[in-house]
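Q: Convert this sequence to structure tokens.
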Amino acid sequence: MIETSHPPVYYIPIEDIDSELLESSTKKTFCEYKGQASYFSIRVGGKRSTNAAWTYPNPSPGYEDLADTVAFYPGRADACYVGDEKVQPQDGDFYGGWITTEIVGPFKGGPGSSAW
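A:
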């Protein structure tokens, strides 16, 4: 999914994810377009990344394709890839965009960009 002034966010079908690595979180947020998001922490081996992924269990009308998918913050993982290319995370704690060499900014998230 691409939103204004954002690099793409990849929503992965939940059946393609090892559910044993996801731990439900109590964190919830609300997007005026997509609806209420629920979060997951990721645990792999002895490492845990808190609130590193999110889902829209009951997305708003127009965003039904997001149901049963999970998105990941690339900055909260050791590495994320698109094909063979390692992704650069979008600046900022709020955004989950995946930046590759084919994606050109500017993007929201960096200092001074919150009012765009």
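The domain at 11-99 is CATH 2.170.150.40 (Metal Binding Protein, Guanine Nucleotide Exchange Factor; Chain A).
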